[in-house]
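Fold Annotation — chain and its backbone
Next Lines — sequence and tokenised fold

***
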Amino acid sequence: MSSHRSRVLKRLIVADVGGEVLSAVQLDVKRNAVVLQRHLSVPIPESVDIAVPSAVGRWMGQVLTEYGFDRLPLVLTAARGAVGLKRLELPPCSPDELPPMVAIRMSGQLPFDASSAVIDYAVLGAAHEAAEGRQAVIAAGIPEAVVDRYREIADASGYKLARIALRPLATAALCSDRARAIESGGALLAVDVRDTGSVEVVVEYGSGMRFARGVDLRIIDEADPTDREQLVRRIAIEVQRSWMSYRVTEDSPDVECVIITGPDELAAGVARQVQTTLERQADVLQSSTAVEGNTEGVGSCWPLIGVGIQYLEGRDFIDFLHPKQAPDHAARRRQRLLGAAGIVIVASVVAWQIGHVMLGRLSDDLAAIKQTYDELAPQRVEVIRQRLRLEHVRRWEAARIDSVSQMEHVLTLLPDPNQLILGSFSFAQESDGIGWDRRAGRWDQGAEAEPVALIQFGGVAVDRRVADGLRATLLKDAVYTLVSPIGSDGPAPSDTYDEKFGLRLMTSAKTVGDDAEREDDEATNRVIPNGESY
């Protein structure tokens, strides 16, 4: 495959405006063939100043549009006479080392100033390798002013210039199928003639151009048959000279056959004259196994079709618009760093955008949650309050403290009413751990503690000794614990009862007296439905 930096074109227009005639073809490069869609060959009118590139380009754009050419990438061809061409044999090296090596070798072999030249090359196939593994290339240099002229022509035509090709290489590619068909392994000589009198002679061998020479002959009067015959003879002479120049080159395979391309009548006359002069079979090219479509009347447009065959066969080619250059490793490193930095920047921006969007959504969700929380806060407090109330009731019921037995037990321990009279009696049950936790700032039911009963009573006694005796009696069995003595809410002292008293007692006993014994017996024998005692 081609190692050239310019892209491979699948649909293209190839044109030649190097002389006094515009030749152009529109091609489609398929997988197995090049399809010729349309072609033209039109003389440039005298009203168009050939020396002005923009004038030539505007006229060319109009003609291509009139002939139905599509707006496709444009390839312009440079003739052999416009370039300096050289076959070079180079020592083995990497592809990156070839551009500077070719530039150095070509700098002293161009017929014009090398400092203002555009140099490109095409690597030849394995059949062209020299001895000791040296590789062969076809190198060409063209003045930069010519490249600028082609750019101006393309810009004025309205077509995008994709490549500046070398016409002799296209001619060689066009005849490659005939060259490969030579059984003796010899070379093929191709002669490209045009009505203007220019002729190019190309030697194709081993799927690569071996030799190329160009000559510009001017017709004195095309309408005069004598001059036409003179042109044919002059072309045959130049072909013979080219053949002789090729023969003296080192390691040149012999020419086995000749192919002529050009206007039918002129090409036929040249073929007869060359066959006589060189004593080789000479034929006018009428078709190609690599070309499909109507090729009738193609004439001097045949070499242009060779540009499409270069893409079809994957040949390395010359492109003066995008010449091969040594890679700039520092630039590649910079490009990688810039690319990496660009990726980081883009990823950061994308991440920031995504984060910003997600933050906005989360903020909206948080605001909605806070609003819902504020709306449900009163209901939540009420639910907690009711839950604590239920817990309080549960613990009260679970305590099973018999307040009646507690009161009866206390009353049985009272002395004779002539000695002591009760003025007040109250009973309460407490269960710790349920309430508002101020430190935590929340309602808390706490750990479930053992419930206790608080008994509070007071009255009057005949004297202090009787009141102290009652207290000692209640505390004797350790059933009750004295919380604190209190003032009495009972009747006022009188002549008989002159001592007021009050007690606050605490007990965890659920029952006392005979009821306590019965409770213990029942607890021993009580069984819950699943068979476990409680």
